[in-house]
Amino acid sequence: MAKDAVTLLKEDHATVKKLLKKLVETTTRASKARPELLEEIAKELKIHTKIEEEIFYPAFKRAGKKEHETLNYEALEEHRAVEKLVLPDLQNTDPSTEQFSGRAKVLKELVEHHADEEEKEMFPKARKAISREQLKALGQQMQDRKDELSRQM
Questions:
Q1: Tens digit of pLDDT for each residue in 63-101?
Q2: How far apart are CA 43 and CA 46, in angstroms?
Q3: CA 92/CA 103 separation, integer angstroms
Q4: Cα-atom radius of gyration of the chain, to the nearest Å?
Q5: Quick one: DSSP state of residue 130?
Q6: Is the CB of residue 115 less than 8 Å from the CB of residue 29?
Q7: Of 6, 94, 126, 139, which has the fewest beta carbons less than 10 angstroms from its beta carbon?
Q8: What confidence category does residue 1 fall into, taking pLDDT thresholds of 50, 70 and 90?
Q9: What is the C-alpha to C-alpha distance for residues 110 and 97, in angstroms, rounded to an integer?
Q10: What is the CATH number of the domain that holds 95?
């Protein structure tokens, strides 16, 4: 049975948080493991961001008030910061350095802040504004898109 949209996104958050925790706990000696973990994180983030931006955010925005629009734009900017600045910067950093450790920590903090904000502010508002049936339908749509994106990567 399909998960609703909010449940699916929360599970994605948990997966990425776990991977980021693992990455941050690595040492400079893990120069082989770090890039592999980072690649997995980048893939998870890319898929998650796409399904949020293509499916969930537009539905959230349509279902809401001005407040939904504000939360929507803030979330998009946080995605942009991670996708265009922090993640590429980390991917171009030597994994055997302390600089990598610092940048990994910044990525983790940014992603956790974003996920926590969605879970505390956006998701409860979505549950109020969008019917259970609609959330289930969105969840199915998002899962299908995730599967499609996973095959492409």
A1: 987 888 899 999 999 999 999 999 999 999 999 999 999
A2: 5
A3: 11
A4: 16
A5: S
A6: no
A7: 94
A8: low
A9: 21
A10: 1.20.120.520
Cβ atoms < 10 Å from Cβ of 88: 12
For residue 43, the one-letter residue type is K
* Length of the chain in terms of residues written: 153
**CA torsion, points 47, 59, 122, 79, in degrees to nearest 10?**
40
Locus of tokens 């991917």: 91
As for how many domains the chain has, the answer is 1
